[in-house]
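Shape matters. Shown next:

___
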Amino acid sequence: MLFDNLIVTSLYYALFLIFIVSIIFLVIREINLWYWRINERIELLEKMTKSLEFLENEIKNSKKITK
């Protein structure tokens, strides 16, 4: 009985520790992303990709028209 109770208690502590470590990891990750402005860089890269795709389509369309 005591051994079973010890296992259950240890399991609860392990789950609690995993939960706390996960929360700390997510908070530190967000701070790191904010500090290095990674989220803003991703947004800028997505805008650049859309602009380049638009220009590529315009070039293809202009070549079709001139042929």
